[in-house]
């Protein structure tokens, strides 16, 4: 049994049946990290003591013949934008380079309560702002499928950790595509849940009306298992919805026959790489052969999603990042003589180029004289984008698109052109703006052997259907 | 050009950033390029469209009520340490770059 290739259920039952131990699983994954991660750079901090304590707890349960919890002994990785008690949480930024949170993010606490072992914290673009992981203040992440290429971003470390068998599953965050896009680039499954489905308590905020936490995993079923664990109302997050959580795993095997799948022409236009198009169209054909009905639809405002997103996300970011002032928990520049100088120099030295760019754009869009023309305008277009989806979902059960217009690009290829980088999110920002769930599932490779992702978008709180479609497709692959 | 160096200086001031000379020049270039792209939103007539600030106000909201009553689903009893224990003073100060055990310490605010 290869300990680093197990799915969640296989790992848990192997421990339960005493064919291995949680300790052995943890050790195997740390050995893998030791061997691989110097060249990949997926982890920023390891939490071996914490993982081994959990391993011990799980192994004792197994020895006593007690039934293990759903993630009993499963090694997971956590994106470093999530707060972890006593464990450094940097958000990929120098300004939080020494921050040790006094509490756990709810999603992390729920995973651990379900038996998961937290291996460590994963690298990401600073404050989750980026599409290539090159904006990490610590080091870039390399794509395990091709080390000359980016893993995507901003949850690049989480995607790379799962792709390189350094973790069975991981948590990421998605504000404009930051779970699905790296999942697509690294050839793993990534899911952004409905806004409000998973508590964001303890997530270091980027854009509060767009931020989501969700799983990255090797299979659709594992994604369903993690989602079931972290979903549901949390009194610590007023935006988390009080809506029952279905058993996503039990729903996976329901037939997909007669489901209506929408295909929107706006997601297959200019800029879409022909190999990606071909792979996604083949995937859609496969689902058709399983009995799904393919329905042409239109989402007419799609081309306005990127400008809308970059106004709303940066405006919210400029407000959220105002808290980093060098007083309570962030970096403070040395040798400052006045309070004002302390704020400015601490932020100047603590934030990286992309974060400053977004703070500036967001502050500009919110400033007197520009608020109506930019921020309010974007909020109105957000209504139109959401209406597009509401209209479409009257006719279809899910929508099929490419996750990204291209496969992974090379490190450095887009890092000097912010706008070119923003366009990498062209097919993913729409779901965040409308608050609908989406999943990226691998659907083949390019001639250069780079993974391609199929994106399936669903109705609000209908993760069950997109998981079911993704699972059905995965079984044919 | 929409954004001038003067605008960048003004916005940096609002955002509590200083920015080096090179950073300011880069900001003028990047903000103009991004705002040019964003210009396409003006193709859309949104005069009769309601702005959307949040997704979550669509769930559980009681539209028969007014004001904050509409969001009753998200309210809870106001109880000291109702949801979790408050942080101890020690924990709250633990990450401070400069603290004296009781207070956060900052450079002098009032000149004299």
Structure keywords:
heterodimer, A: 477 residues, alpha/beta, Amidase signature (AS) enzymes, 11 strands, B: 112 residues, mainly alpha, Histone, subunit A, 3 helices
Short description:
The complex is a heterodimer of chains A (477) and B (112). The mean pLDDT of chain A is 97.
Describe the structure.
The complex is a heterodimer of chains A (477) and B (112). Chain A is built from 16 helices and 11 strands. By secondary structure, chain A is an alpha/beta fold. Chain A has a domain at 3-251: Alpha-Beta Complex (Amidase signature (AS) enzymes), CATH 3.90.1300.10. Chain A has an 11-stranded mixed beta sheet, sandwiched between helices. The radius of gyration of chain A is 21 Å and the shape is globular. The model of chain A has no long low-confidence stretch (mean pLDDT 97). Chain B is an all-alpha fold and 112 residues long. Chain B has a domain at 5-43: Histone, subunit A (Orthogonal Bundle), CATH 1.10.20. Chain B is 29% helix and 0% strand. Chain B is built from 3 helices and no strands. Chain B has helices at residues 5-14, 21-38, 89-93. Chain B starts with a helix and ends in a 19-residue tail after the last helix. The mean pLDDT of chain B is 88. Classes of the chains: A alpha/beta (477), B mainly alpha (112). At the A-B interface, α10, α11, α12, α13 and α14 of A face α1 and α2 of B.
């Amino acid at each position: 049994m290869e300990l680093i290739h197990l799915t969640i259920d296989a790992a848990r039952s192997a421990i339960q049946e005493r064919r291995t131990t949680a300790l052995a699983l943890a050790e195997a994954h740390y050995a893998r990290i030791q061997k691989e991660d110097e060249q990949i750079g997926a982890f920023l901090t390891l939490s071996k003591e914490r993982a081994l304590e959990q391993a011990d707890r799980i192994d004792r349960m197994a020895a006593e013949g007690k039934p293990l919890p759903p993630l009993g002994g499963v090694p997971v990785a956590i994106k470093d934008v999530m707060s972890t008690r006593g464990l450094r949480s940097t958000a990929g930024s120098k300004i939080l380079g020494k921050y040790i949170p006094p509490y756990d993010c709810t999603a992390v606490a729920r995973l651990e309560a379900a038996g998961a072992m937290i291996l460590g914290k994963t690298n990401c673009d600073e404050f989750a702002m980026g599409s290539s992981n090159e904006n990490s203040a610590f080091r870039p992440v390399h794509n395990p499928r091709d080390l000359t290429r980016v893993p995507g971003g901003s949850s690049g470390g989480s995607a790379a950790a799962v792709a390189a068998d350094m973790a069975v599953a991981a948590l990421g965050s998605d504000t404009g595509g930051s779970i699905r896009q790296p999942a697509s680039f690294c050839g793993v499954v990534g899911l952004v849940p409905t806004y409000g489905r998973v508590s964001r308590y303890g997530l270091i905020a980027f854009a509060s009306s767009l931020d989501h936490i969700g799983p990255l995993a090797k299979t659709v079923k594992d994604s369903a298992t993690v989602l079931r664990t972290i979903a549901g109302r949390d009194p610590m997050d007023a935006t988390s919805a009080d809506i029952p959580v279905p058993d996503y795993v039990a729903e996976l095997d329901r037939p997909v026959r007669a489901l209506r799948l929408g295909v929107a022409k706006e997601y297959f236009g200019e800029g879409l790489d022909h190999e990606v198009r071909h792979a996604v169209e083949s995937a859609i054909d496969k689902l058709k052969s399983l009995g799904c009905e393919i329905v042409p639809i239109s989402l007419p405002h799609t081309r306005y999603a990127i400008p809308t997103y970059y106004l709303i996300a940066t405006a919210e970011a400029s407000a959220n990042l105002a808290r980093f002032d060098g007083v309570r928990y962030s970096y403070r520049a040395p040798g400052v003589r006045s309070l004002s100088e302390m704020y400015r120099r601490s932020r100047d030295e603590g934030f990286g180029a992309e974060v400053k760019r977004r703070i500036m754009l967001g502050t500009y869009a919110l400033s007197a004289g520009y608020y109506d023309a930019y921020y309010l305008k974007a909020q109105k277009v957000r209504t139109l984008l959401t209406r597009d989806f509401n209209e479409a979902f009257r006719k279809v059960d899910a929508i099929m698109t490419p996750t990204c217009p291209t496969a992974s690009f090379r490190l450095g290829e887009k890092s000097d052109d912010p706008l070119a980088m923003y366009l990498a999110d062209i097919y993913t920002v729409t779901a965040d703006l409308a608050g609908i769930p989406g999943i990226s599932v691998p659907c083949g490779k390019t001639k250069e052997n780079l993974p391609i992702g199929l994106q399936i978008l669903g109705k609000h709180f209908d993760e069950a259907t997109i998981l079911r479609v993704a699972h059905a497709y995965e079984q044919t692959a | 050009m929409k954004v001038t160096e003067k605008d960048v200086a003004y916005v940096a001031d609002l955002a509590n950033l200083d920015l080096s000379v090179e950073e300011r020049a880069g900001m003028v270039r990047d903000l103009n390029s991004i705002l040019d792209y964003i210009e396409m939103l003006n193709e859309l007539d949104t005069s009769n469209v309601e702005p959307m600030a949040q997704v979550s106000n669509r769930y559980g909201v009681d539209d028969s009520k007014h004001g904050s009553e509409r969001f009753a689903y998200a309210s809870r009893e106001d109880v000291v340490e109702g949801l979790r224990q408050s942080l101890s003073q020690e924990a709250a100060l633990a990450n401070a770059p400069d603290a004296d055990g009781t207070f956060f310490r900052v450079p002098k605010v009032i000149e004299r």
